[in-house]
Specification:
It comes from Sagittula stellata (strain ATCC 700073 / DSM 11524 / E-37). Belongs to the GTP-binding SRP family. SRP54 subfamily. Part of the signal recognition particle protein translocation system, which is composed of SRP and FtsY. SRP is a ribonucleoprotein composed of Ffh and a 4.5S RNA molecule. One of its GO terms (biological process) is SRP-dependent cotranslational protein targeting to membrane. The chain has 445 residues and is an alpha/beta fold. The chain has three domains: 92 residues, SRP54, nucleotide-binding domain (Four Helix Bundle (Hemerythrin (Met), subunit A), Up-down Bundle), CATH 1.20.120.140; 185 residues, Rossmann fold; 119 residues, Signal recognition particle, SRP54 subunit, M-domain (434 Repressor (Amino-terminal Domain), Orthogonal Bundle). The chain is built from 20 helices and eight strands. It has an eight-stranded mixed beta sheet, with helices on both faces. Strand 5, helix 9 and strand 6 form a beta-alpha-beta unit. Helix 1 runs antiparallel to helix 2. The model has no long low-confidence stretch (mean pLDDT 85). The structure holds guanosine-5'-diphosphate. Guanosine-5'-diphosphate (GDP) binds next to helix 5.
């Protein structure tokens, strides 16, 4: 589904990874090509721009690992950034359908694949999740659409709400709810009417249905081949009715795939599934890491860099532990810890993981030790000279003033940091004395 983009990026990175050393210009040129490739795949300009910027920033700040080439490292960064741009919260493919009967509202434009997707999803819920599913068509303007859903229902062995002529969509939604409750269904899918374009009447109808159905999930079904139009449609539906996720259909075609890449970044809504054909099982969970892998087609390199990073981190940890055991803990060590904490999701997250530090994590949180504080502390350390970092005890008033000013902070902030370094240094000494098998070893694991 991303053949063209994949081919283009493949070309860029093949060249990049073959080179031993990379200049800043090499990376810039490559990233310019990445940007063009994204735009050609119909990724929206702001998203493409932001993507390349994020990669550039990470590429310049990346810790250099000896065992991989800079080009390989760039591939890994692009790979991670692809995952980031594609990811939503929660587990891919999971829908909020506990508390039966759970209503799912299917919305979208006519011809986008809404009815087909409703049936595909019903089949999936029945077969994979063992749910008892009911489907109901609310498309009163197109009797053929109602028939279509009933036929698909028979085909996949899923019940559909009997068609009653002359009923309006809200009444059908109510009847579906009652029927789902009485019949002991786990989930019921409401296939709303579509229009060729977004119009006021359609939106009002969908809103009215939403208000009576109170859906657990509202999924927009949209044709992935329409590129940026798909993203606009999603924005519109989200503003009016509020969607919880997107299903991109026709991703089996030779579309440019840009909709998939822009969707989450622009609408903030995750793609939950992709349609890959007309058949009833042609519905796939949208898994960002697999999709990123498919787009880049460079799984080997990604795995290689991951392994090298792990080795590097293990080596760093080992070195640090040796220093700590000797009771050495200066500003360089503190900075390394702070950087690590930032990477691991902040101070609280890190301390939660260390044995016996859960309480401290809570205190830190209460004291407002969030990422902002971490960043400020790192800035203060960056503002010190090499000698000062290695020997923080030499810091007197004039040096402190200079350092604080350099980081745009107050001397009192610096004093807090120094106190923290002293406390940690003391703690390290104590832990070091507990020996190799002690708490420190456990904490570093
Ligand atoms: P609706 O008007 O939104 O309900 O659209 P339909 O569900 O009737 O689908 C319109 C057409 O698109 C039908 O011929 C479907 O078979 C086809 N279709 C739906 N999803 C996909 C898909 O993922 N891939 C392909 N190739 N065709 C699809």
């Amino acid at each position: 589904m991303f053949e063209n983009l994949s081919e283009r990026l493949g070309g860029v990175f093949d060249r990049l990874t073959k080179q031993g050393a990379l200049s800043e210009d090499d990376v810039k040129t490559a990233l310019r090509e990445v940007r063009v490739a994204l735009l050609e795949a119909d990724v929206s300009l702001p998203v493409a721009r932001q993507f390349v910027k994020a990669v550039e920033k990470k590429a310049t700040g990346a810790a250099v690992t000896k065992s991989v080439t800079p080009g390989q490292q760039v591939v890994k960064i692009v790979h991670d950034e692809l995952i980031a741009v594609l990811s939503g919260e929660g587990e891919p493919g999971k829908l909020k359908i506990d508390n039966p009967p759970a209503p799912i509202l299917m919305v979208g434009l006519q011809g986008g694949g809404k009815t087909t997707t409703t049936a595909k999803l019903a089949k999936r819920l029945k077969e994979r999740d063992g749910k008892k599913v009911l489907m109901a068509s609310l498309d009163v303007n197109r009797p053929a659409a109602m028939e279509q859903l009933a036929i698909l229902g028979t085909q996949i062995g899923v019940d559909t709400l009997p068609i009653v002529k002359g009923e309006d969509p809200v009444a059908i939604a109510k009847r579906a709810k009652t029927q789902a409750g009485l019949g002991g269904y786990d989930v019921y899918l409401l296939d709303t009417a579509g229009r060729l374009s977004i119009d006021e009447e359609l939106m009002r109808q969908v809103e009215a249905v939403r208000d009576v159905a109170n859906p657990r999930e509202t999924l927009l079904v949209v044709d992935g081949l329409t590129g940026q139009d798909a993203v606009h449609t999603a924005e519109n539906f989200d503003t009016r009715v509020g969607i919880t996720g997107v299903v991109l259909t026709r991703m089996d075609g030779d579309g440019r795939g840009g909709a998939a890449l822009s969707m989450r970044a622009i609408t903030g809504k995750p793609i939950k599934f992709v349609g890959l054909g007309e058949k009833m099982d042609a519905l796939e969970t949208f898994e960002p890491d697999r999709i990123a892998g498919r787009i880049l087609g460079m799984g080997d390199i990604v795995a290689l860099v991951e392994k090298a990073q792990q080795t590097l981190e293990a080596e760093q940890a080992e070195r640090m532990m040796k220093r700590f055991q000797k009771g050495q803990f200066n500003m360089n060590d503190l900075k390394m810890q702070l950087d690590q904490m930032m990477k691991m999701g902040g101070m609280g997250a890190m301390m939660q993981m260390m044995p016996g530090m859960g309480k401290m994590a809570k205190q830190a949180e209460e004291a407002g030790m969030d990422d902002k504080v971490l960043r400020q502390q790192i800035a203060l350390i960056n503002s010190m000279t090499k000698v000062e970092r290695a020997n923080p005890q030499i810091l007197q008033a004039s040096r402190k003033k200079r350092i604080a000013a350099g980081a745009g902070m107050e001397v009192s902030d610096l004093n807090k940091l120094l106190k923290m370094q002293r406390q940690m240094s003391d703690m390290m000494k104590k832990m070091g004395k507990m020996g190799k098998g002690g708490m420190l070893k456990q904490a570093m694991r």
